Each structure stands twice: as C-alpha cells, then as structure tokens.
Amino acid sequence: MPSAISDNWMVQLLRISAFPIAGVPVADPHSWWETTVGSAPDSMTSKPKEGLVQSSGPVDETSQLILSCLPDRIDWQLLPVNEVDLSPDYPVIGNFEAALPKFVETINRWLEQSCPEIQRFAFGAVLVKQVNDRASGYSEIAKLLPAVNIDAEGSTDFSYSINRPRASTLNIEGLIINRLSKWAVMAFKVFKLPMLSSEGVKLVTHAADKETYLCRLELDINTTNELAKLPKERIKEIFAELVSLAKEIAEQGDVK
Fold first, then answer.
1. Is residue 65 part of a domain?
2. Closest CA to 77 of 14, 10, 12
3. Residue 138 forms part of a structural domain
4. Measured in Å, how far apart are the chain's first and last C-alpha atoms?
5. pTM of the model
6. Are 238 and 175 contacting, i.e. CB atoms less than 8 angstroms apart?
7. How many CB atoms lie within 10 A of CB 44?
8. Closest residue by Cα to residue 37 from 135, 133, 103, 91
9. For residue range 65-93, what is the model confidence (pLDDT) as tens digits?
10. How many helices (H) and strands (E) does the chain have?
C-alpha cells in the first residue's frame, strides 16, 4: 500500500544512461547540448584520448544539467546547483513529481533528435525524505518494504537492495527490464565554516554541524542486454516505461 512517504520524495539526482552499440561511432556529441537544451552550455570539456565530451549548465535556480558522452556510455544528469543555499540542510532539486516532467521533456527531445543506435537504456534517480531520527526513518521505510521485517528501535546500519526484473509491456520480443532499488536511512551533516571576503569581511558567522536524517531510495531501472539493439523508433516508449516503473516503486514500494 502507498505510504505518506511516497508523496514527499525529494530529488537529489535524475539520470538517464544510454549504451551505444559496440563499435559504432557516435556522431557529433558536441552539438547535442545546444540541439537539446536550446542554448549553449555554460561549460564544455573535451578529452580526445578518453573520447569524453562533457557539457553542463544551469536549468533554474536549484538545478543543473550535465551531459557526459563516452564511446560506450552517454549520461544526462539533473543535479542540485552547487551554490544553492541549502534549506533544509541537504541538497535537493525539488519534489519528485514536480522535477520529473521537465527532465523527461528534455530527454525526449534528445531521443527524438540526436540519440544514436543503442543496445541498453536506463533511468536512475536518488530520492530522499527527511525524518525525525533513525528509528522513525526505519519505520517509514518498513511501510514500503513488505517482505522485510525491520526492527526500527533495536537495529542500525540497515540497507536493502533488490532487483525485480519484469517483462516489458510494449510487446518488444526479448525486452526485459531490471527494477533495481536500494533503500536506506542516512544521517546527513553540513558544515558551514566562517569565511572572509577579500576585504576581510566575515561572510558566514557560524559553523553548523546539524545532523539531518533522511530516508533514501536509489533507483536504477534498466533494460537487460539480451537484445542486440533497442528499436530506435520505440525508444521514447521504452523511456516512458522505465520512468513509470520508477514511479511505481516510489509510490508503492518493493512490489513484484
């Protein structure tokens, strides 16, 4: 059954990973950012010996987008802006339901316009929810893990990882989707240290070491490698299914 926790997941990371067909050159990754985002990146890095092309830039006041392209892997990541004034004291982009559509829209543009032939595709997310303490975090996670008996008061260092593969519903022969989820409760601590400007003015007047407890859910929803390549004309449908399966876990927990 859905828990109140599913309504309050905050996003620390959204990611897609595409794995090109081995031996097939990837065409012109330098142009992908501008074609997809609609403007030039704030920064671009190229390492020809490694075959790495990386572009990045802000999306809004709380998030930034990073594109990393290697010969065997392409990643688009949405992350919190490093400079954002953290409130609460852990970095997040925003609510899962609110942050997801903009990321999906961006990735769909790339899939339509620039995505090369790929063998595998993955959607990943790191979601967190603040709780009062470790025990209350374990109690919250227990509601989403019906197969696990968690002693909330008498245990520590709990982590749970499981993959529940499922056949795709898209009628693509041989398409199986891994549904990997990792669950934990973590303590997050931010240190705010005093700093001086060039004029000697103190910019931060305190050093806070407040400890914040978070339920943490890491998702990696990915196609298996049984197929020689994924059908290019259906890649957006595959992406939509991966996102839907991730949302199902966030809302309903570890379901078969």
1. yes
2. 14
3. no
4. 13
5. 0.88
6. yes
7. 14
8. 103
9. 999 999 999 999 999 986 544 445 678 99
10. 4, 11
207 inside domain:
no
Q: Is residue 104 part of a domain?
A: yes
Scored b (16 or more CB within 10 A) or e, 177-189 reads bbbbbebbbeebe
- Tell me, what DSSP letter sits at residue 5? G
The pLDDT value given to residue 211? 81
Type of residue at 217: L
pLDDT, position 60: 86
Cα 47 to Cα 22, 50, 69, 71, 117, distances in angstroms: 20, 6, 10, 12, 23
The residue type found at 155 is S
**For tokens 């987008």, what's the residue?**
65
pLDDT above 50 (res 204): no
Q: Which residue has the tokens 């001086």?
A: 196
8-state DSSP, 83: T
Q: Residue 51's domain spans which residues?
A: 4-129+158-180+222-251
User: Domain total for the chain?
Assistant: 1
Among 254, 247, 256, 255, CA closest to 9: 247
Question: Which pairs with CB-CB distance under 8 Å and at least 24 residues apart come from 26-34?
Answer: 26/69, 26/71, 26/74, 26/116, 27/116, 29/53, 29/67, 29/69, 29/74, 31/114, 32/67, 32/69, 32/110, 32/114, 33/57, 33/67
